[in-house]
Amino acid sequence: MDKDLIVGFIGTGVMGRSMASHILNGGYKLLVNNRTKESADTLVEKGAVWKDSIADLAKEADVIITIVGYPNDVENIYFREDGILNNCKKGTIVIDMTTSKPSLAQRIFNEAKAKGISALDAPVSGGDIGARDGKLTIMVGGEKEVFEKVSPLFKLMGTSVNLLGAAGAGQHTKMSNQIAIASNMIGVCEAMVYAKRAGLDPEKVLITIGGGAAASWSLSNLAPRMIKGDFEPGFYVKHFIKDMKIALEEAEYMEIKLQGLELAKSLYDELVEDKKENKGTQVLYELLDK
Hints:
This protein is of the alpha/beta class and about 290 residues long. Helices cover about 50% and strands about 15% of the residues. The chain folds into two domains: about 5-165, Rossmann fold, CATH 3.40.50.720; about 175-290, N-(1-d-carboxylethyl)-l-norvaline Dehydrogenase, domain 2 (Orthogonal Bundle).
């Protein structure tokens, strides 16, 4: 990919800031915009260029990457009058890396194509650690030639990058990912609670079972935080609930019953009632340790 191409990045939160940093370190000119400018300050200090509006960023960038909070945020920044699709030039490639609705990804693709713009949906998995280390899993939906053109950017942010199909396929794959994680998180939390109540050394238990059939990303990366009482967000409870809700809506449409996911969402809903929606998903441990 031509290093002279200008990359715009919208959404410099917990994960976006690290992802954008890898692009900057990769030698690309980087334009940034975020709801709160302070979140982008470290990127600006490293050489990124702050843009006061999405429209200003869209007019200048050749590739625009977005990773924001919720589907309504995605809809807002892409379709409003001063948003992305009404201000970027023909030939621009837009990549939404937010975990969002497959139907919204398809709408962005169709409306972008009508304007001579290419679009990919590319949600990620790996949390704050994966974003920091450039080891995200990136699940992409869209056209092969567009995917291949921007693959160098994806490879700066992730180690597992796959094109799964047409527009929306990336989002559907991310739903499969979240379904697998949701039930697994219950198991990881319960295992750590059990070890504690049995009077075992949780760290030794973690090392032991982490090398066997119980191994998982959540066990390796989030169980240590549970043991230390670190419930700060690598991935917010409120965003996980958003993902589970999308997956349940898609499952209902496909007439699938996902009982494990329904249970997980009910437990995370209890965390919201306890005002823990801004904690990391590993805070489920606290609920199960009551």
